[in-house]
Each structure stands twice: as C-alpha cells, then as structure tokens.
Specification:
The protein is mainly α. The protein is built from 22 helices and six strands. The chain has helices spanning 3-15, 19-26, 31-38, 43-50, 55-64, 67-76, 79-87, 91-98, 103-111, 115-125, 132-135, 149-159, 184-189, 196-199, 213-223, 243-261, 273-304, 306-311, 319-343, 351-381, 384-414, 424-450; strands spanning 142-144, 168-172, 178-183, 207-208, 227-231, 237-242. The relative contact order is 0.06. It is a multi-pass membrane protein.
C-alpha cells in the first residue's frame, strides 16, 4: 500500500478517534516515506500525523523535511510534543531547523530544551551554515588517552546512547585536544589492561571548524570516512561530521554548481509566485546580457567580413558551424574542469599540466573535425582553398575553446573565486568571438585566392 492510500485511512481513523488503529497503519511505513508525503501537505495537517508517532520517530520524520518546513511544523505543534521531539533529535539537526527561524521562534524552541542541550545548539548556531562547524554534531564518543581499554568500553557504554555514531572513538588528552582515534572493533579485541595511547592511531585526519563544507565533503569522500572529527585552531575536539551530513552537502553543492554552470541559480518553489519570477529574472538576466553583448560583438566581426562575404558568399555558410562547435567544446571543457575541481580530481596548483592536457585534447578533436570539414567543404563548394580556410579555422577554434574552457575555471579557483561562475554563457560567448576573429583573419588573408 502506498502512503497516499494509507493517508485517507489514517484520516478516517483520526476523525473517528480510533488513534490506535491509525498508529497501526502509520507504523507500516518508514520515517522517510512519511516525510516524503507529508511535505506536500499544509502545515496544520502534518501535526496530527506526527502526534501519532513516538517522539523518536517523529524526530526522524522532521529531520527528513526541509528545514524551513520543519520549523513551521514544530511551531504549529504544542509545547509538550515539540519538547519531546526536540529531545530525541541530534543537536546539529536542531540547529539546522532553528537556523531558518526568527529569533523569537528560536528562543521558544530553545526554552523547551534542557540547559546543556540548548547551550550546544546555541554554539552550533554561531557558525556559518556552510562551514564544518555549521554541519557538525556535538554528540560523539571521546575517551582519554591515559585510560585502559577496559575503562574505555565502560565510558562508551555510558555515552554511546546519546552519540550519533560510534564507528570511531576519538582520543583526547587532558586539554580536550584530539590526539588519536581507534575503531570500536580495535577497542573490543584489545587487551583490557592496555592503555589507549598504546593502541590508538596517532595520525588523525581532522578538519578545522571554519573549513568550507565543500572541502570537508571532498576530504570525507577521498578517505571513505564514516565520520570525521572537527577541531578548533588549538586542536581541541569540537564535534564530528557524519557521512549522512556529507551526502547532503554533496547534493547541495552539486545542485548549486549545476545551476551556476547554466548561468542561473536555484529557485525555491515554496516561495510566492511573484518572488520566484523575480528571483529567476534577477539570476538569469546578467548572464543573458553577457550573451547579448557577445552577440553584438560577434555581429560586428561578421560585419567586418562583409567585403569578403560579398566576394565569396560561401564563407557565410560555415559561420554557424564554427560558432556552434567552438561553443560546445568550450562548454564541455569548463564543465569537466569545474566538476574535477569540486571532486578533487583536478588540482588547481597544477595549472600548466591541466591546461596542457586540455590543449592536447583540443588538438586531437580539432584535427579530426577540421579534416572532415575541409573534405566536406571541398566536395560542397568545389574549392580546396575554401575547405582549408574553414577546416583550419575550425581546428584552431576548437583548440582555443578546449584550452580556455579549462583555463578560466582554474584561474578563478586560484584567486579564490567559485569556478562554477565560469558558466556556459560566458565561455560559449567568448569562444564565439575568438572563433569569428580567427575565421575573419584567415578569410582576409586568402580572399584574393578564393575568388
């Protein structure tokens, strides 16, 4: 049974005050399935469903919702139920929700929490949401380096129920500085009397609390961690970032890069219609104006070819071919470069090697496509020289496009600018202009032999 079908049954049970029956039907579904359906309901209809669930399960459902919607749902529910749900949620998830609320709403939710939990959430709210501190959780397991394995297991039994994960156990010194890590498996099989500092791994990969979330995600992906510790400038352990949060970051950053590559930005479909329209116009217009300006410049170059085109009309036949092929190659190269930088597959520090590789690729595809165009133009117009002019222009244009499509994102990255801003409209417009300049130059040089 789909949840959509079950929802009507649940509503009927609620209307008849048959709450136990409604809970039985609801219990057949996972929190993620419930969240997927209720996120399309009005806020006032979500509360009655969550009231049927245990606080722990309700917290899992709310955690699956958009942070803004989750905040609205909690604000709509009674204080007692809201407090019970919040108590079952991890601090980083609560902080994400509160980040979308007004200050009075935040204070109301925080007042329902225990003092220690509220302090943890307030501390998380101090960090920027796109940094390691903004996505970390403070519920983790840490042990001192000078205790035995037997004592460490006792500590874990006491603290693990409140921790988000216990795959890794982090080791600290008396100053709360991160000094090592040990897996739960290694701890269990260790001699009970062995000191932790004698069996722990001393080389620990960690991230600074102010590191950008995209860099954190790349690091976790590189080393296949299930969690990574977060430290401050003094190496004090602040929290951990778990792989589920990293997956969210990867999804968020990938979506952002895709939108930027298209020369636009993400629009929140939950906003009012007029706001969505205004945001879409505001985000797209600058890049469209760049394209428009490029079109005028390209038109000016073609106008400069007026004499040559009037003399050899066939020159105009190949202009769409040159601009189209160059733009495609440039867009392909910039997309691969931006994606490679985002995943760490391309090192911005090795610019010459990366750009050189792109140039060689451009030479390869340029020579093949240039040769094909030369032959086709000769067969079509019965002029070998015209075919050579078009073929050489296309070849040089594709080499330039491949090189620039890779070079621009690398330069932006080197100067600390998000390379995704090197979007398709910018790259393709630039390549159109350079391609036409190359074509115009060759045509002008060989015009007297083309007549």
């Amino acid at each position: 049974m789909h949840f959509e079908e079950a929802y009507q049954i649940i509503r009927d049970h609620i209307a008849a005050q048959e709450l136990d029956e409604a809970r039985k039907v609801l219990g057949e579904f996972q929190p993620a399935d419930i969240a997927e359906f209720v996120e399309n309901l009005p806020v006032h209809e979500i509360g009655p469903i969550l009231n049927l669930l245990s606080p722990e399960t309700a917290g899992e459902v709310i955690n699956q919702l958009d942070a803004e919607l989750a905040g609205d749902v909690l604000s709509d529910m009674g204080e007692e139920k809201t407090g019970a749900i919040i108590d079952e949620m991890y601090s980083d998830d609560v902080a994400d929700i509160l980040g979308e609320m007004t200050d009075p709403e935040k204070d109301k939710i925080l007042s329902l929490m225990g003092q220690e939990d509220a302090i943890e959430v307030r501390e998380l709210l101090e960090f920027k949401e796109d940094t390691a501190g903004g996505i970390m959780t403070t519920e983790y397991v840490a042990i001192l380096q000078n205790i035995t394995a037997e004592r460490a297991i006792q500590v874990i039994r006491e603290t693990a129920p409140d921790a988000e994960t216990v795959y890794y156990v982090y080791v600290i010194n008396d100053k709360n500085q991160l000094v090592g890590v040990i897996s739960l498996r290694e701890l269990i099989i260790a001699n009970p009397k062995t000191l932790i500092e004698d069996i722990m791994h001393h080389k620990v990969k960690s991230v600074n609390v102010h590191m950008d979330q995209e860099e954190v995600a790349a690091m976790v992906a590189k080393y296949d961690f299930l969690a990574i510790p977060v430290v401050d400038d003094d190496q004090s352990l602040m929290g951990i970032i778990t792989v589920d949060d990293v997956i969210d970051v990867i999804h968020e950053e990938a979506s952002e890069d895709i939108y930027r590559l298209a020369g636009t930005a993400e629009v929140d479909f939950e906003d009012a219609l007029w706001k969505r329209i205004w945001m879409a116009v505001r985000n797209r217009l600058p890049w469209l104006l760049v394209t428009l300006l490029g079109g005028f410049l390209a038109g000016g170059i073609i106008r400069g070819l007026e004499k040559e085109i009037q003399t050899v009309v066939a020159l105009s036949y190949f202009i769409p071919l040159l601009t189209g092929m160059g733009g495609n190659v440039g867009t392909q190269s910039s997309t691969l470069a931006v994606r490679g930088l985002a995943t760490g597959q391309i090192d911005a520090g090795k610019m010459l090697k990366t750009v050189g590789t792109a140039a060689l690729i451009g030479i390869g595809v340029g020579l093949i496509c240039g040769l094909i165009v030369t032959v086709m133009a000769f067969l079509w117009q019965k002029s070998l020289l015209l075919g050579l002019v078009v073929g050489i222009s296309l070849c040089v244009n594709m080499i330039t496009a491949s090189t620039m499509g890779t070079f621009v994102p690398l330069v932006l990255k080197r100067f600390g600018v998000d390379p995704a801003v090197a979007s398709a409209p910018f790259i393709s417009t630039t390549i159109d202009i350079t391609g036409l300049l190359i074509y115009a130059g060759l045509s002008s040089v060989f015009i007297k032999w083309l007549v």
